[in-house]
Amino acid sequence: MILPVLLSVLLQVGAAPTAEAQFQPLKRDDDFACTADGRWCVGLLEGVAGDDTAVRPVVRAGGSALPGATGAVSYGQESHQPWNGLMSLADGGFLAGVDVGSSAMYSGGGGQASTVALYRLDAAGDAMGGPVLTVPVMSSVLIRACFGEKDMEQRAGACHDEYSFEGKLTAAPNAGSGVMPTLIYATTATAFPRGVSRSKDSLENPPLKPADLVATRDPTCSFERRFTFDAATGVYQPDRPLPDCSDYTVP
After folding, report:
1. Which of 43, 161, 175, 247 is deepest in the core (most CB within 10 A)?
2. Cα separation of 197 and 50, whole Å?
3. In sequence order, what are the residues at sequence separation of 6 or more whose Cβ sits closer than 8 angstroms to the Cβ of residue 244?
4. Residue 228 burial by CB count (10 A; 0-12/13-18/19+): exposed, middle or buried?
């Protein structure tokens, strides 16, 4: 009876699930972004392949020096900081990102947005090339819609069109046995009030009613895609094309 019992135990051990790949949240620690336990910190380095304006992440053990690195970089209306997630890869490397923010001002309105540029880093914590995935992760846009009392009446007092977008990037369950995990990108886009569009003058719409003063979900730009790494191109590819959501993602 010993051998069957031993064999059963070995099979159970062999079938035990391994830890799934996942992004660890980062928090600001002085100038850099670090894991909650302080084991790893992410900073930014400027200049890649002769391009002095390029910004890439660098990962070091918590408490280690980050020579030449910074926690934030700005170019005009564009800002860069470490993205708020970090993933350890099976080969000892990492997935780390740069959060690229942009903003714009309008007459009576404005907008801000951020995009994550995700990089593959080697076991030393240095980028192995350009971004492997770039996707929008946040935007908020307000556009003035009232220019007089008549407009205020037609708009039922809602004098701004508001557009919002949120994108979340996570590792897929059972993300695969390779070094580069499968990623899930899920988005939600909304517009307020009901029926507005950046491609059309909202004052051309019928007068608003109280029932129209709600944020509505855009079914085209609220979607989910599964990204897998393509070794031939060195970047992630979606399982289906992404829709054009620039009305939401561009300030």
Report:
1. 43
2. 41
3. none
4. middle
